[in-house]
Amino acid sequence: MSTNDLNDDEKATYLIGLAVRRQLEQAPLTSETRKEIEAVFAWIEQNPMSPSDPSEGGKLEAAGRRLFVWITAVSIAFIAGVGIIYSLYKLISTETASGDSEYMNIVKEHYPFMIGIPSAAAAAIFVVLLMRSASGNIEIEIPEVIRFKGAAAPILFWILCFLAMIAAIKMLW
């Protein structure tokens, strides 16, 4: 049996069961002890360990995470929208004595830096959060090489999304 699919509590229970089994095997063998050992072995073979369904607490925790992800995604979209509206306002309203907008000149010269990179960062986090809320925890694995899970996988996925968007901006600009 593989313990890879078990959570920490299930692994602990499995290891305790193994310890009890070893103690039973080392106990003095009387006819009564032998019957008890055979009953325990039969029960273990008939009831193999398997990942359990999430408890009510686990379901509530998952619902809370989903809610947090959506609140974060909406907040990022709102902040990005406010930033874009502010940038457009500054482009239109700020003028120097010569009639040109100083802010507009900066944005025109450095548009990918001023608008593209922050937008790519917001879009990448939005993609990661949307993927996590739709399909649960993110795991990235290169067979026989490396495996990312837990907090490392979403961070790596964000970096990959962000770099892909930056590369697209660089190629198209």
Description:
The protein is mainly alpha-helical and 173 residues long. It has 2 domains: 8-46; 57-172, no CATH class. It has helices at residues 8-26, 31-46, 56-93, 102-109, 111-135, 152-172; strands at residues 140-142, 146-148. Helix 4 crosses helix 5 and helix 5 (111-135) packs antiparallel against helix 6 (152-172). The chain is rod-shaped. The protein starts with 7 loop residues before the first helix and ends with a helix. The relative contact order is 0.07. Residues 50-56 have low confidence and may be disordered.
Short description:
The chain is mainly alpha-helical and 173 residues long.
Set down the secondary structure blueprint:
Blueprint: H1 8-26, H2 31-46, H3 56-93, H4 102-109, H5 111-135, E1 140-142, E2 146-148, H6 152-172
Antiparallel strand pairs: 1-2
Helix pairs in contact: 3-5, 4-5, 5-6
Number of helices: 6
- Widest sheet: strand ordering: 1-2
N-to-C SSE string, H for helix and E for strand: HHHHHEEH
Give a count of the beta strands, DSSP E runs of length 2 or more: 2
Helical/strand content category: mainly alpha
Return the average pLDDT rounded to an integer.
76
Quaternary state, please? Answer: single chain
Low-pLDDT sequence parts? 50-56
* Cα end-to-end separation: 55 Å
Report the β-strand fraction as a percent range: under 5%
Largest sheet: 2 strands, antiparallel
Choose one word for the global shape: rod-shaped
Helix percent reads over 70%
Tally of separate domains: 2
